[in-house]
Specification:
seven-stranded mixed β-sheet; about 15% strand; single chain; 15 strands
Length: about 400
Amino acid sequence: MTAMTSTARPLLNRRLAEFGTTIFAEMSALALSTGSINLGQGFPDTDGPEEVREAAVRALRDGRGNQYPPGPGIPELRTAITAHQERRYGLTYDPDTEVLVTAGATEAIAAALLALLEPGDEVIALEPYYDSYAACIAMAGGTRVPVTLRPSEGSFRLDLDELRDAVTDRTRLLLINTPHNPTGTVLTRDELTAIAALAVERDLLVVTDEVYEHLVFDEAEHIPLATLPGMRERTVSISSAGKTFSFTGWKVGWVTANGPLVAAVRTAKQYLTYVSAGPFQYAIAEALRLPDAYFDSFRADLRRKRDLLGDGLRAAGFEVYQPQGTYFITTDITSFGEKDAYAFCRALPERCGVVAVPNSVFYDDPDAGRSQVRFTFCKRDDVLDEATSRLQRLAS
């Protein structure tokens, strides 16, 4: 007997109807099918420190983490996270009640929004935003309210008046990403101070995505919002190991916040993955204790790669917005007589054998980023050299 399928309504939950395959999956598949260099998805093409990888192997062999780890994360990692926060930023957290280990930052964001939002709550997010933000807000029944970072003198900046005007009586939460993907903007102390004052004045919760905290360049400084007056008790800080240690496939992230906020996020998280990455948690606990020389060297190497790709993109004819952080460069394609970044990126593999990502998919209003294209520079030097050489075809 053939099962009956109702056609009275679509199969997909209407909250997710606007979301299809992520742009990263689409463009990575295009890279594979065309044999192109993938400068679209942000993953390194070399592994991180050997001692960290060996720590994972050792944990596997010793039988640590091969079964379910504790729901909040193994004690060794939670302790390492609190030590990192205190050493780097002067933030003190209780490893037993104020830290939660997650399946990467993506799950942490999802769990935080599912836990803290009620249907109809408004969430202000800096646009362009990482695509999971919009989907997670939708799944929680919230309403996203974009505040757009706009190009200004070679970079992207936040309009604080626009942010303040976006807050209404329905605003529940600010979703702040700094260092910011995809623009590479790092919010300044003055900007963060104004955000903090607004959150306190309007009694708003704040979720901060800080996964690129160790990837800031030049004179930029990463300042966790939770360090500012009145913010520790209302801020859910999120980070992860993938970007800092170049093991993105391990999916080890974490939340730090005061006890009641962590308890709320944990309630949602336990029904998502429950636990994950058992042996890798032990390895990341060791990674977080690496000396400052590792973090300094890693940052310097990525800054050099940024400049290598940026120079190549300029030589190829792109307008380049210099990133202060992350490992992405946003460019503008109008100098080529092009206006549609999505069409440009779809055609780029055939034209040049390179894959990039259109920023327009990260905006509520695609016209705001219609001509912006993002490239990643977390690749080997020879890959970046070959990619920029291929992109030279655009100049001719």
